[in-house]
């Protein structure tokens, strides 16, 4: 069912960050602060509810056709300057749950499907202070070419992120309502934020012979300085881009549409090898 949003609300949404989801291979060299182990009290650490993430896993299972052959992973990125990811650790922790979570080199990870841990009110807990990290779902269909992402993969990341509470947004009654709707990713023209591996220059949508360059306004996020402390994409804005799935699918773009990325540091056409 479609949801009507007044024009004033739509304008507000354009300024609100609804990001999921980061691409693998982010450069973390710019973070130079020393690693600080945070005390274990709930609320002191940067963490997420496993119960909510478990619900997101169920969404992934129900929507597998959007990302054929893909697995569901998660990923963390630095949310602000001075956050070092060296020595980062993750643990699934509850009153009766203690499970270490291995991290890949790009800081992505899988989580077990553990109904008992969800009932235990367990948390996916890092050894970083609250507010240090940006969390995303990570879904990539096998065989996707380098420097591209599939539209269906990104849409499924949005669906999972909404349910799993991995979407950072400016607190407001409207934004809270949106996250509770059955399928806001497809039924509303909301901006979802994603990250690439390197600073972005442009993005092209490609499906067969059809090719369209995304507007520059969809790159690097809107300028809203008063909201920077609430936006989890601002520190990584040179790699950030916004997607609105509803209009794209209404225009006939399909799940297998590719987003092709051109990066700031790519060699110009015709450059000598």
From TrEMBL:
Record keywords, A-Z: Signal
Signal peptide as annotated in the record: 1-23
Domain of life: Bacteria
Protein name: Uncharacterized protein
UniProt source species: Rugamonas aquatica
Lineage, top ranks: Bacteria, Pseudomonadati, Pseudomonadota, Betaproteobacteria, Burkholderiales
